[in-house]
Please model this.
Amino acid sequence: MTGRLGDQRGVAMVTVLFVGAVLTAVTSAAAFLSVRELRSGLGERRGAQALSIAETGIDRFLIDVRGGSLDWGEIKLAGCPTPITLSGDLGGGSFIAKLTIYDPTQPAANRLGGNAAAPPCTTRVTARPPRGTAQSCPLYTSSCFAITSTGTITSGGVVVAKRVVQELVQVGASGLPFGLSSDFVSAGGTPNANNISLLSRNDVQGREKLIFTGNDAYYLQSDFYAWAPATPIPAGAHAVGSVYVKNASEHPPNANCTASGEYAWDGSGLGDVNTAVCAGGNAPTSKFTEQDFNTLAPESAITEQEYASVKATAQREGLYCGPTLSTCTKNGVAHTLTGNIKASDIDGLPTDFVAFFDFSAPYSSGNSVNWDAVVNAAPTTCSDGTPYPQVTLVVRNGDLALTSGASVTGFVLVPDGTVKLGGNYTVHGTILSKETSLQGTGTVALSDCWVAHMPGPTLEVQRIRFGELDR
Amino acid sequence: MVAIGLFAVVSTGFFSVMFSGVRGADTARSIVRLTEEARLGLNRIVRDTREADDLLSPTAISYEVRTDYDASGLAGGTVYSPLCTANGELGYEDVTYAYNAVARTVTLCGSTLVSGAEPITGEPVFSYTSNYLEYDTNPADGVTTPEELDDAVGVGNNNDTLDGVEINFISAVKFAFQVRDGGQVEQFRSQAQLRNRR
Model:
């Protein structure tokens, strides 16, 4: 017994066990601290990542609107009942962004579109995009939209972080000139200009060849003359330089009441306050200055950023050629052109598509695109909710030629060269070019349908308010 | 007696180590709780500030943001911060964040949001910068400070205080504080752009 009590070998073991247990507790506490810190940090990092991805959804949507894959006809009905949706993957996460109309004057539950038969879908003014975006959404609801974007991070198929953000945006017509707008315009043959104004930063040659009919589908008299009524302005020619009729300046007289009266609304840099009133009425002044042009159209061109957006759309889901016509893609796949652009070159493209001809700088008259295809043979027929086929047709550092049978509905942008229209062509929409030559018996026109479906690159999107919804 | 003495020494040592371990675990839990609370609080401050429509009364220890959380621009709507002042006419809420040096807290409209907080040496709890780089003059380093705004002709009133129209040019709020629990210190820094101040 004494021997067993005197044996202390077990004490060491027990002590080691106790110390081991205590050290385990201490280590566990440290590990607990580290794990919680790590988990907390990881959660925070994932949350920030999800927020960034959600914001990317908003940015991508804004780019898409200006990129030419959407038009005002689709945008104005977003969420009535189906939102326009854009999704994508990014850096281990994904986003889904939805565009809907937004009416802050409605009760909170009804602000976003979602029910075509209920507000705000039934209370929106949706005919045409408002000019300018100076008003803020709460006061001017007809152009206010919400982009709601959800960013998620997944790990092993499980959502581990999610953030929802919303950007209120205002969409309206950009400050570009809408109509037949060029630095210089010359006319021959008997071209028709229906419901469209001609806007030139310099001269118009051969005015007598042009046959204007109807009222401008876009501009109002008050857009040209601040004191005039907000009623459509009759189609006419407006040049900062001179408007030449049979090689002589049209003004004076002021106003020019000759012929059928279609000259009565013309304006030029040589015009003046009108001393006569033409049968059927006329503008209060025949004077049209650079300042008037800039008031009418504060933007003379789209920006390089906007060109990049349009180009990206063409490369992704349109027709893109550059730096020569022998290197093209269609819907992102290599495509070979054979001669002029024809139906087979644009079939299979989206309803709203972009054709971008990106010749390398500088401009050369040898860089020419000959367009024979037809985009929307019935451009004056449309209804809300029905797709309106059109093209954003861009030629950089070159010219564009349309000949007999060619028909384009949409937005023609030839910033460095000449739009050459000959034969029996149709351009239904807006033309923005350095020069335009109208020959033959074709038609350039605008219509209420086009105005109700203005293509994305002619629109302006302004951010109004950012919010985080996942509170 | 010798055995009892040895047992007492061993036991004392053992319990002392054990209690120390328990204390360590408690401290660890406490630090985790504090830092998590601080993280959540900072997140809340950053998110509210990011969404703010306006910034009011900014100082080194407090500022106020005015936010229309339900984005109506109209009276009524959701009240998100019931402790704070709701501007019924326009549907805004005025949310005040402040640092209380005595209580060592960061508060939201007087209510504790972060406890155990104290300034990081040499840094204000709240500081402000501007995106208006045309006033980034002294030095021209890519950051427009309140001091530069104060000195800017046509903007500042040269009184060495961020006040008056200078506040309208502030576009971001920076946060810097640390949380101390015993000998443990965790530092927190962040910055929020006033996204709706356009």
Q: What stands out?
A: The longest strand of chain A covers residues 158-173. The mean pLDDT of chain A is 89. Chain A touches chain B at residues 11, 15, 18-19, 21-23, 25-26, 28-30, 32-33, 36-37, 40, 44, 47, 104-105, 108, 111, 136-139, 166, 168, 463, 465-468, 471 (CB under 8 Å). The CA atoms of residues 182 and 225 of chain A lie 21 Å apart.
